[in-house]
């Protein structure tokens, strides 16, 4: 075993110690083998937490191939450990270019999957556009993140999605915890590791007030920042205001912000007109899946000089001497500059992934149409119950009279 693989094994085991729900599923599946003979192609962030997910799938009898869902999210020691220690073929390397990134996706598809697991839908779209000869063998898939679910729903709406996919992102035990608490903490973790900036007293502009944006805004405020939210949806903007945040268009926020974090899942959120209005020293980071939220091409075009000022931080000097600092090439800051979400929260997300795969395999013979499906309520509740059990939390139980009251309509005041 190489030293890199040994380092990865130790870190994977450390993460596993904080993932009791997934560990329980793995131990059960070693006995039951519900995925026996199933071929799974997974395109996910190659982190210690993901390693424990694919270990669980393998324990259930699946043959798994894994590739990375982002060029800067791979932890190379995890790749080494998966290949050398756990014998799970993993095609990933931190910092790959676009050609190698997609070559890895093709390698993950080579064994002809029965099930796909995706984070951003790059594997699914590659399968539908370039590897259509494999589509006949696919029974279903899962999708981990908001951006991917949006893309898959667009495919279903256009009538091109060829197999059923479970939107794991939409499980309450995923988005209410992973997106909010996981993204909130890991985004600030990446920001602080990259810059060592003091948030207390700084103005942080958060673009988007979905579950990820809520978590980022709350954590930034908790560290003493003045937070401004930008939004395009009236209900989310109203919620931000009633949560105590200032809300305004990005053009108005641009001259005020010290730190900008995008979390929308959309393109061109910070554009040239915003960059030109920002103050000297402003820091730019993206917490959305793809590197399209900050217009990096416009930033490069405006710059008269650029240099690396810290690991993972590039400074762009604009005419007049103003400097703007970009973290992680505008890619996911929590993985480009840190380690991603804490294992405790990924425990629930990946439990949903594993159980949804088992559900799909069981439902495949019933003729599920090629649409995007929610995680079954029973799985969501099981994950929540297992997590509470692992945390030592117990609940009240309804009395018979309470059940009758809730089931009836005759009793009033």
From TrEMBL:
The keyword NAD applies. It catalyses: S-adenosyl-L-homocysteine + H2O = L-homocysteine + adenosine. It is found in: Cytoplasm. It comes from the Bacteria. Substrate binds at residues 47, 119, 144, 174, 178. Residues 179-340 form the S-adenosyl-L-homocysteine hydrolase NAD binding domain. Keywords: Cytoplasm, Hydrolase, NAD, One-carbon metabolism. Pathway: Amino-acid biosynthesis; L-homocysteine biosynthesis; L-homocysteine from S-adenosyl-L-homocysteine: step 1/1. Its EC number is 3.13.2.1. Its main location: cytoplasm. Its cofactor is NAD(+). NAD(+) binds at residues 145-147, 179, 208-213, 231, 266, 287-289, 334. Belongs to the adenosylhomocysteinase family. May play a key role in the regulation of the intracellular concentration of adenosylhomocysteine. NCBIfam families: ahcY, PRK05476.2-3. HAMAP family: AdoHcyase. This is Adenosylhomocysteinase.
């Amino acid at each position: 075993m190489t030293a890199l693989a040994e380092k990865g094994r130790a870190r994977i085991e450390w993460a596993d110690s904080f993932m009791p729900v997934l560990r329980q599923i793995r131990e059960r599946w070693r006995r039951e083998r519900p995925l026996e003979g199933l071929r799974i192609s997974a395109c996910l962030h190659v982190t210690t937490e993901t390693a424990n997910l694919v270990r669980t799938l393998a324990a259930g009898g699946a043959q798994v191939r894994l590739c990375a869902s982002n060029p800067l999210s791979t932890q190379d020691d995890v790749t080494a450990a998966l290949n050398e220690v756990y014998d799970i073929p993993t095609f990933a390397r931190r910092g790959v270019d676009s050609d190698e990134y997609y070559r890895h996706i093709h390698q993950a598809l080579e064994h002809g999957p029965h099930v796909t697991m995706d984070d951003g839908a790059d594997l699914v779209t590659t399968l539908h556009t370039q590897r259509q000869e494999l589509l006949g063998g696919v029974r279903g898939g899962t999708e981990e993140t908001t951006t991917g679910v949006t893309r898959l729903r667009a495919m279903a709406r256009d009538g091109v999605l060829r197999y059923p996919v479970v939107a794991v992102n939409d499980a309450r035990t995923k988005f209410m915890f992973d997106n909010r608490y996981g993204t909130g903490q890991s985004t600030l973790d990446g920001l602080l590791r990259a810059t060592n900036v003091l948030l207390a007293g700084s103005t942080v502009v958060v673009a988007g007030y979905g579950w990820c944006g809520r978590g980022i805004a709350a954590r930034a405020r908790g560290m003493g920042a003045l937070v401004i939210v930008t939004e395009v949806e009236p209900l989310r903007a109203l919620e931000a205001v009633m949560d105590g945040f200032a809300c305004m268009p990005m053009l108005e926020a641009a001259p005020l912000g010290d730190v900008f974090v995008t979390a929308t899942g959309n393109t061109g959120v910070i554009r040239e007109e915003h960059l030109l209005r920002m103050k000297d020293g402003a820091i730019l980071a993206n917490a959305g899946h793809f590197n399209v939220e900050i217009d990096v091409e416009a930033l490069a075009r405006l710059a008269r000089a650029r240099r690396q000022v810290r690991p993972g931080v590039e400074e762009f000097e604009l005419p007049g001497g103003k400097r703007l600092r970009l973290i992680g090439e505008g890619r996911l800051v929590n993985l480009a500059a840190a380690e991603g979400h804490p294992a405790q929260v990924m425990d629930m997300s990946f439990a949903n992934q594993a159980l949804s795969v088992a559900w799909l395999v069981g439902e495949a013979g019933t003729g599920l149409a090629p649409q995007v499906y929610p995680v079954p309520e029973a799985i969501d509740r099981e994950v929540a119950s297992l997590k509470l059990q692992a945390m030592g939390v117990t609940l009240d139980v309804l009395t018979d009279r309470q059940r009758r009251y809730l089931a009836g309509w005759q009793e009033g005041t």
